Amino acid sequence: MDLTNTCNSEHRQRLRIADIARMTGVSAGTVDRVLHNRGRVSDEKRKKIETVIDQVDFRPNVFARSLSIKKEMRFVALIPAVEAGGYWEYIKNGIDKAQREISDHGIVIEYYYYDQYDTQSFVMATEQILSTPPDAVIFSPEFIEESAAFAGKLEQKNIPCVLVDSNVETIPCVAYYGQHSLKSGYTAAQLLFTGLPQNSTVVLTRAVRPGGAASNQAIRREKGFMQYVDEHNLRRKYHIVRIDLCSNNTTKNLRALRNVMASHPPVAGAVIFSSKVYWLIENLVKVGLAGIKTIGYDELQRNVEALKAGHVSYLIAQRPEMQGYLVVKELLKHLVYKQPTHRTNYVPVDILTGEIVDEYVQFNRRLNE
Amino acid sequence: MDLTNTCNSEHRQRLRIADIARMTGVSAGTVDRVLHNRGRVSDEKRKKIETVIDQVDFRPNVFARSLSIKKEMRFVALIPAVEAGGYWEYIKNGIDKAQREISDHGIVIEYYYYDQYDTQSFVMATEQILSTPPDAVIFSPEFIEESAAFAGKLEQKNIPCVLVDSNVETIPCVAYYGQHSLKSGYTAAQLLFTGLPQNSTVVLTRAVRPGGAASNQAIRREKGFMQYVDEHNLRRKYHIVRIDLCSNNTTKNLRALRNVMASHPPVAGAVIFSSKVYWLIENLVKVGLAGIKTIGYDELQRNVEALKAGHVSYLIAQRPEMQGYLVVKELLKHLVYKQPTHRTNYVPVDILTGEIVDEYVQFNRRLNE
DNA sequence: TTTTAAATTGTGTACGCACACACTTTTATA
DNA sequence: TATAAAAGTGTGTGCGTACACAATTTAAAA
């Protein structure tokens, strides 16, 4: 191992536009035009300046840049009405953090809320938004067709948008941040079945909307889950039963669970493909299924409590604050700094246990301060 | 659900120091003095200004602030000599990212390297650093006593420092970022034993330095691992054997493994408490132990390959780039922005499988761009 | 060649904060 | 009361970039 040249100094003073100008014998204005591809520069000087720029690896001072760019803009975030302690509150926190950072640019974010279980409320909100067109939109394409229609109208008006949480590949947007639902479902299965006694019953649950439809995400997670099941031939080893739970009908839910128990071998595992495991646990307890291996999603405070108490075996998390935060920052990158962005960005599938969840939550919280 | 007031506008124009000054009938300079607690302001005006400041929740424009603060400073990062594809390369990447961001402040980071397996090289580097005192130091207290001595000297000279990766509670520093080793070891055990056939043998390995000492981290991880074992009474159900592997003596390593195999029931699981599982796998393969359940640490590229190929069951990761990055940012917070910092910051214990590792790696990479 | 238009280049100011310095008022000292 | 010191307050400039606009040069048209 060579440790002789142990000290790798780099005392090069930061160069400024004025320095580049002097080095190339032009004025700062000309360099500026080259930097921003604004034309109005002779080929000869442009080339000369470009050469110097990447020869000395010139990068403008971001602070000065940010300061002088004043873009009075209005972003709109269209998200499900946040309930305290619910999933969307986390995403909103991330958006709020980004908002705080970019407010110095003169950018403002307005929230529009809709009812997650009511397509109409979504459509109405989109119309309201379009009636006073903002400079950019952040939303989640939960309702696929309505979202596509909305995106189309935004495109017509040349209003860029970003997608958060849920993805629809066909929607053109600046960026999407969210979890790879299929893989997160696959992972749920992997965690659930590892070490689970054979010939037992596993209950898959989805929280459905009163209308009867499961969410985009939940459907894909289940698909990923079943992919694992089939890849490992588990249908022969386990009794896999799916039931839909309806948030507003406890009696029916309990009946469904009791039905499963009556007509199958002992239940050894359960999973829910939406964010309220703590609620599933409550139901399981009521029918005498406390203590079975259970897996759920998202680090909601009540989920975390259930995890630490041992009622939930694993939580699969997806950094919602990060999603909200990054989605706004991508918009900034696109609109203000005019840098290229990636369309599809997957957030990691985070596996949490009762022992490590505290650090996870605290870390995220501090990052989002 | 109330969606009537669906639009939560916030059009309040950002206030500037000059605005605060006008609102309180003083000059900008006076407001500035209050903002920075620089005294030289009459009690009467100070109170008035303070009232207004938090009444309107005034926050200085960060861009202007950053631009006008010019702190020509020199930070020193003292880390193990990075080998390509090794763990410390990731930490260095994080530090480098922070460096890029803060270079606009006029801050420069110099690297000093030492040999991870040679205490003397560490001590020599610390002496070299102290002979040209920097404004702050980043290092990892791998060698406990020598690090404490170094920290003491830094404190004498009033040079703040931050710790990365490894922690020594008694060292006073601005901040520490790293993983909770005990919990990560505990988690490794949890993952390894879940579903593992009883009465089989489990091999714990540590990569030891030629001198014979295991690293700080490795020792604590093992402790956490054994804590899980004891809490679940697994010593009765499994044969748990520990062996030390020495990087420069393959023959000896293979002999040790063969010994274990000869004198115990079939080996069903293995874990290594340092970052090179891929290397452990190579050894396992050589003695005919391919295919057993194996757990290792860190998302080194070769580890990731082994994970995706199915040779490693789980990797436990710790966001090294994030550690390097955040540690520098904390220094900045302390020295430049004079904001309070947290002493001990745990990075999450990330559990990776072959299916989800790609998204994890790519996400980290993009964050670090 | 003169006039006009187009292309190219330079200059100056705003962005909002931090800080040095100058200036004014009050208080202490002779 | 005069003088010095201290306390309090205001003004001005620099940080580096972006961009509008003025100034200059070159090309095109008359």
Q: Can you tell me the overall shape of chain A?
A: elongated
Q: What's the total count of β strands of chain A?
A: 12
CATH superfamily of the largest domain in chain A: Response regulator
| Secondary-structure element series of chain A | HHHHEHEHEHEEHEHEHEHEHEHEEH
- How many distinct helices of chain A? 14
Q: Numbering strands along the chain, what is their spatial order in the largest sheet of chain A? A: 2-1-3-4-5-11
Which strand-content bin applies to the residues of chain A? 15-25%
What features would you highlight for this structure?
homodimer, 369 residues, alpha/beta, 434 Repressor (Amino-terminal Domain), Rossmann fold, 6-stranded parallel β-sheet, 6-stranded mixed β-sheet, 14 helices, elongated, DNA-binding
Q: Can you offer a commentary on this structure?
A:
The structure is a homodimer. Chain A is α/β, with parallel strands linked by helices and about 375 residues long. Chain A folds into three domains: about 15-60, lambda repressor-like DNA-binding domains (434 Repressor (Amino-terminal Domain)), CATH 1.10.260; about 75-180 and about 320-350 and about 360-365, 3-Layer(aba) Sandwich (Rossmann fold), CATH 3.40.50; about 180-315, Rossmann fold. Chain A has helices at about 15-25, 30-35, 45-55, 60-70, 85-100, 120-130, 145-155, 180-195, 215-230, 250-265, 275-285, 300-310, 320-335, 355-365, and strands at about 75-80, 105-115, 135-140, 160-165, 175-180, 200-210, 240-245, 265-270, 295, 315, 345, 350. In chain A, the strands form two sheets. In chain A, strands 2-1-3-4-5-11 form a six-stranded parallel sheet, with helices on both faces. In chain A, strands 7-6-8-9-10-12 form a six-stranded mixed sheet, sandwiched between helices. In chain A, helix 5 packs parallel to helix 13 (about 320-335) and helix 8 (about 180-195) crosses helix 9 (about 215-230). The longest helix of chain A is centred in the first third of the chain and has 16 residues, at about 85-100. The model of chain A is unreliable at about 1-10 (pLDDT under 50). At the A-B interface, helix 4, strand 2, helix 6, helix 8 and strand 11 of A face helix 4, strand 2, helix 6, helix 8 and strand 11 of B. Chain A binds a DNA duplex (30 and 30 nucleotides) through helix 2 and helix 4.
